[in-house]
Design goal:
The relative contact order is 0.13. The protein has 2 domains: about 80 residues, Immunoglobulin-like, CATH 2.60.40; about 120 residues, Lipocalin, CATH 2.40.128. The protein starts with a helix and ends with a strand. The longest helix has 21 residues. With about 230 residues, it is mainly β. It contains 3 helices and 19 strands. The strands form 4 sheets. It has an 8-stranded antiparallel β-barrel with strand order 10-12-13-15-16-17-18-19. It has a 5-stranded mixed β-sheet with strand order 2-9-8-5-6, with no helix packed on it. Helices cover about 15% and strands about 50% of the residues.
Length: about 230
């Protein structure tokens, strides 16, 4: 009789234990594939949560959210950010886990999204004189292209407003080459200034995903571009 009671008690205990594992509280858990990526890249992860029926993901500083089981996040800003997961169980209980990751600056991506990107040249100052003297010039499109293992190129086309006939202190060749020097933080390209085709090497003063400012001290020329 004692043995039968013991067996029954063990059976009940095992039954309750199995039930607890099946209907237990959620545990938020995930693993980042890497905790450091370059901007313009995708942050990927491995979902490891338990006992969860729904998920809320949030890159806190950027406000990027998802409710997918295993999402990926496209990050286009440099900095250190926090990925937070809130896992919710069928019993309404939630569990939260956070992990930080770093996004490093990518100069090539800022210039051309690693393939191609359109810019508008807002200002060219040579020896203290602004060379863009007509609004039609600002409307023009400056497209930087990057091709792996080949010389990078640019194309310059008039925008919606066609420049009237006349002579302008600054004009762009319709096409040409450009070079990004990571080591020296410079961008090189040929511009037509005051009727002369000149090769410029601009030191990168500021480069964001939508803004570039450079200066060529040898030619006493500065340039300002914004994303088109």
């Amino acid at each position: 009789m004692l043995r039968a009671g013991l067996i029954l008690a063990i059976f009940i205990s095992l039954s309750i234990s199995c039930k607890d594992r099946k209907e237990g509280n959620p545990v938020a858990s995930f693993e980042l594939i890497t905790d450091s990526i370059a901007e313009g890249s995708t942050l990927s992860l491995i979902q490891k949560s338990e006992n969860a029926s729904s998920f809320e993901w949030n890159v806190l500083e950027l406000g990027i959210k998802s409710t997918e089981n295993q999402p990926s996040f496209y990050i286009d800003s440099a900095g250190t950010f926090t990925l937070q997961l809130t896992a919710k169980g069928g019993n309404g209980i939630t569990s939260t886990l956070s992990s930080t990751f770093k996004v490093t600056k990518d100069t090539l991506w800022r210039f051309c999204n690693r393939e191609s990107k359109e810019w508008s040249i807002k200002s060219i100052i040579n020896n203290g004189t602004e060379l863009i003297n007509d609004d039609c010039q600002v409307d023009d499109i400056f497209k930087l292209e990057h091709i792996i293992n080949k010389q990078d190129s640019f194309f310059y086309d008039e925008g919606n407003v066609t420049c009237p006939a006349g002579t302008y202190p600054f004009t762009m060749p319709t096409k040409g080459d450009w070079t990004l020097d990571y080591v020296n933080s410079t961008i090189s390209l040929e511009l037509n200034v005051l009727g002369v085709a000149t090769q410029y090497v601009f030191d990168i003063i500021a480069i964001r995903k939508d803004y570039f400012e450079g200066i060529d001290n040898a030619n006493n020329t500065s340039i300002l571009m914004i994303e088109k």
